[in-house]
Structure formats: C-alpha cells, structure tokens
Amino acid sequence: NTVTYVGYQAFDGCWRFSGNLEIPNSIEIIGGYAFNSFNNITGEINIPNSVVAIGEKAFASFWKITAFRIPESVIYLAPGFIWACEKLVTLEVDENNPVYYSESNAVIERETKKLVQATKTTVIPEDITAIGEMAFDAVENKGNLVIPRSVISIEDEAFKYAHFTGTLNLRENLQYIGKYAFYFSYCTGALYIPDGVSFIGEYTFTNSGFSEIHLPKSLKTIEGNTFYNCTRLEMVEIQSEVDSIGSGVFQHCNRLNCLKVHCEVPPECWYSAFSGVSRDIPVHIPVGTLAEYQSA
C-alpha cells in the first residue's frame, strides 16, 4: 500500500492472470497500457478513490469484465482508457465526480458535454456536443447508428473498429469528422454527409460498406484514403466546392460505376485517387466543362 503509481506498460501482456483485479487504495496514477491484455480477468473493475488519472489503453482487452466503475477522485481519463472490453455493459462514474458523469453506460465530460468512452449498450444522449477520440473504438455494435443533432465534432478514431452493421445517419449541425473516425466500421447503405462539414480526415471511412456517398458543398478537400477500399461503393456525388481529391481516396472501390461531379473547375486529383476504379464508368459533369475536364 505504499505504491502510488503504476507505470507505462507495467503489467502489459500478463494475460495469464485470472480471477479479479483489485487495485490498492494507495494508487494515484495508472499509466498507459498498465494492465493491457489481462484477457482472463473477470467480474468488475472498481477504481479506488485515490486514483486521479488513467492513461491510454490502461485497461485494454479485458475481454471478460462486465462492469467498470470510476470514483469521485478521477479528474483525467486518457482517450481509450478502456479498450476492446467486449463483454463490458456497465460503465459508471461516481455522481460526485467534478469532471465526469455517466449516462447510458458512457462517460461524459461535464463542462464540454463530450462523450469520452462508451460501451456496446450506449445510446448517444441527445445533448452531446462531441464524440471524443476513441470513444467507441473497438466497441462492437449492431444495427443503425444515429448521431444526435447536438453533435458538432466527431474526433479521431471515434468509431474505429466499431463494426456497426446498419446505416449511418449524420445530422445537420456536424462540422468536423476526424481521421480514422469510422475506420473499419462496416456501415452500409447511402451516406449523406451534411452541409456544414468542412473537414473529413484521412482514412475516415476506409473499408466501409456504403453503396452511395454524397459529399456536401461545405467540403473543399477530400483527404487521402478517406474512402479507401470501400468495395461495395457504386455511386459518388461530389459537390461544386471541392478543389482537391487526395491520394488513394477511392482506391480499390472496384464496384464504383457512377461519378457525379458538380465542380465547374476540375478538382486536382492526387496520385492513385481512383486507382483500381474502371476507366469506363460514366462521369457526370456540369454542362460546358467537357474541355476543362479532358485537359485536366
């Protein structure tokens, strides 16, 4: 009970441990990856009311735990402090915690209303303003995903490996989608990105299952590899303000059979933007711009 700090990767990979994990009430800081891959720990994790900070993936790959409880004392939670805990259904914060609270088995920052960590039972509350970095990363979900109208920002890796199997409904107040945000999330159907979104990061929708993608007028640059390897994608609509299509954006989208481009000036296409896409697909462009597109 004299130890106050569990360091970075202190017990990383000690997967043979089994039973329950009890953390002494002398611990104040739990470093990143401190208990990574404790695959056989079962039951509940109760963080003692001495801990003030928990690092990234400190509790990663706890495959068998069902509940995780955070005390009043914790004032810093790194992105992805719990990760790939596939049976976790209960995530609670002490009601007296000054920085965080819990709702719908998710951890939320009080001041910003940012959802920082979710579970597979989480339904995003209607007053959330941001989905934090890695909030749903490796959180298995089935069905449709609806982002509330209150959400302005979806941060990096927010839904990475979330494996949603239904449609993705993005609402009109959204402005920012970070890199890798929906990487390998498997969402299907048509994706309509609302007007107002001015930035979509690289690899954001890689390996998604969308059949159609409709980009907004507010978007000027499509970052590299945004829709890489979307092998079910058949139609893309690009609005008039886009001036740059990054490398690998639609690479290996080999079912793409219709491209609608509303730009009067042909967008600059970087290396391999359409690599693996048939050269024979119809491209719909504004009337009177054929010569510009042929010379681009």
Explain what you see.
With 296 residues, the protein is mainly beta. The chain is 2% helix and 28% strand. The chain is built from 1 helix and 27 strands. The strands form 7 sheets. It has a 7-stranded mixed β-sheet, with no helix packed on it. The longest helix is centred in the last third of the chain and has 6 residues, at 290-295. The protein starts with a strand and ends with a helix. The mean pLDDT is 95.
Helical content class: under 10%
Rg, Å, rounded: 22 Å
Number of helices: 1
**Poorly predicted ranges:** none
Q: By helix and strand content, what is the structural category?
A: mainly beta
Order of strands, widest sheet: 11-12-13-14-16-18-20
Q: How can the largest sheet be summarized?
A: 7 strands, mixed
Average of the residue pLDDT scores: 95
Note the run of SSEs as H and E: EEEEEEEEEEEEEEEEEEEEEEEEEEEH
Give me the count of strands.
27
Dominant shape: elongated
Spatial gap, N to C terminus: 69 Å
* Strand coverage percent: 25-35%
Brief sketch in words of this structure:
With 296 residues, the protein is an all-beta fold. The protein has one helix and 27 strands.
Key words describing this protein structure:
elongated; 296 residues; 1 helix; 7-stranded mixed beta sheet; 5-stranded parallel beta sheet; 27 strands; single chain; mainly beta
Topology:
Layout: E1 5-6, E2 18-19, E3 29-30, E4 40-46, E5 53-54, E6 59-60, E7 64-70, E8 76-77, E9 82-83, E10 90-93, E11 100-103, E12 106-109, E13 114-117, E14 130-131, E15 145-146, E16 153-154, E17 168-169, E18 176-177, E19 188-192, E20 199-200, E21 209-214, E22 221-222, E23 235-238, E24 244-245, E25 258-261, E26 268-269, E27 283-284, H1 290-295
Parallel strand pairs: 1-3, 2-4, 3-5, 4-7, 5-8, 6-9, 7-10, 13-14, 14-16, 15-17, 16-18, 18-20, 19-21, 21-23, 22-24, 23-25, 24-26, 25-27
Antiparallel strand pairs: 11-12, 12-13
